[in-house]
Each structure stands twice: as structure tokens, then as C-alpha cells.
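stage 2 :: seqdesign
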């Protein structure tokens, strides 16, 4: 993938850290814009288009976790949290509120760049493969706009829920194990429990209502999408 097409919003209250991040990213061809706190990041996201946000957790005025939750109220832009906290509960909380990845300081530039590339690959590659609308029974999915509706009524999905649905609908009747889903949607860097998949599938089915039955459980293996489900 060509990095030059991606714009990244770098958010950190420490100027030295912002400069270091920007320097490493621009060497790899990314376009960067900076914000010194969560409030500034939110305002920039409302005014400009970005492909990914680096968001420091420990910031004055508005911390990174609260900023992440507010961003998710209006945007599905991929978010990678940067923090000195290493506790598992903090990492889990960050992912639950909508972050796509979580990296603990201190980290090497190589690791950060690898995580950024992996996140962009997961969240943006599908739009190049297929820019279309899928209509399956009562379900309609606008791939480019990341919009989902059932019988014409909009269904609001999180990024992970949409990515799961997209994977299923473009692989009709293919059975995915929980391990495969965790790897393809969350990425190999994610070390969460396999029950995370079950929880997201359950919520996705509930949100889809009548169309939720299209996602079928294959006992002892995993899940599949079947249009006549």
C-alpha cells in the first residue's frame, strides 16, 4: 500500500513526542497534522479528513480515552491509543470504547509504523477492492459510505461490527473460525479472548434485527453468512 495517500492526525500534549512522531511518519511518506490536546483533535476531525488518529491517553483538558469516546460519536476513523499505562484493564477499556489498537510507551518507531500499516490495511483495503452496494434480502450495505440499513432503516454499527459484516457478506456461506475472525478483524497484534468475537457477533445480530439471522453459528467451528438464513 502507498503511504503517501494517507493523512494521520498526531495528538499528544508533549511537543517533543509530537515532533518525533511526525518525523518518523513523514519519513515513511505519510502526511501529518498535529493537535496538542483532545479538544483540538476533535475540532480538526470535524473540519478535515484523516485516515488514522494517533491519540495520547494522558493529556490535560481532555484525556485520550474521553476523546476517543467523543470521536466515536461522529466518526469511524481508525484510532491508535498511545499511553504509558500497561495494565490489561486499561488496554481492554481502550478497545471497548472504540480504539482500533493500543500501544504502550516507550515503543520503537518500527513497532509503531508496523501497527499503523496493519491498522490501515484492515480498515481501508476493502474500499479499494469493492466500491458498491450489496443488497441481500432485507439488508443493504453501502461499502464506500460504510452505511447499513435493514428494510430502509439505518443501522448504526461500530467499525468492528461493520468490518465483520463486510467480511461475511463478501464471503457468502464461507465458514470462519473464531481464530480467523479475530485475526482478520482485530489483527495479529490483538491478544484478546476469543469470546470477544462471540460478543461482537451477538451485538451485530441484535442490531441487524430481522437480518441478524443471516449470520449463522456453525457449531464447533465458528460462523458463516448465508443469505437465506
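stage 2 :: out
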Amino acid at each position: 500500500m502507498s503511504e503517501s495517500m494517507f493523512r494521520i492526525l498526531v495528538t499528544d500534549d508533549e511537543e517533543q513526542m509530537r515532533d518525533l512522531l511526525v518525523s518518523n511518519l513523514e519519513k515513511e511518506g505519510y502526511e501529518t497534522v498535529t493537535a496538542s490536546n483532545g479538544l483540538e483533535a476533535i475540532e480538526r476531525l470535524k473540519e478535515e479528513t484523516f485516515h488514522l488518529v494517533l491519540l495520547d491517553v494522558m493529556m490535560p483538558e481532555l484525556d485520550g480515552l474521553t476523546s476517543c469516546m467523543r470521536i466515536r460519536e461522529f466518526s469511524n476513523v481508525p484510532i491508535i491509543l498511545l499511553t504509558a499505562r500497561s495494565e490489561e484493564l486499561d488496554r481492554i477499556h481502550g478497545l471497548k470504547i472504540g480504539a482500533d489498537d493500543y500501544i504502550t510507551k516507550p515503543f520503537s518507531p518500527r513497532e509503531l509504523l508496523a501497527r499503523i500499516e496493519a491498522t490501515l490495511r484492515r480498515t481501508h483495503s476493502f474500499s479499494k477492492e469493492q466500491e458498491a452496494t450489496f443488497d441481500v434480502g432485507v439488508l443493504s450495505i453501502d461499502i464506500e459510505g460504510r452505511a447499513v440499513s435493514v428494510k430502509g432503516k439505518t443501522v448504526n454499527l461500530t467499525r468492528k461490527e461493520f468490518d465483520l459484516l463486510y467480511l461475511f457478506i463478501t464471503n457468502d456461506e464461507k465458514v470462519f473460525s473464531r481464530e480467523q475472525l479475530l485475526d482478520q478483524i482485530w489483527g495479529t497484534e490483538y491478544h484478546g479472548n476469543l469470546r470477544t468475537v462471540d460478543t461482537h457477533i451477538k451485538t451485530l445480530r441484535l442490531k441487524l434485527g430481522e437480518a441478524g439471522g443471516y449470520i449463522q453459528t456453525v457449531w464447533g467451528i465458528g460462523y458463516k453468512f448465508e443469505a437465506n438464513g
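stage 3 :: structure notes
- The first strand starts at residue 7 and ends at 11.
- The first helix runs from residue 15 to 27.
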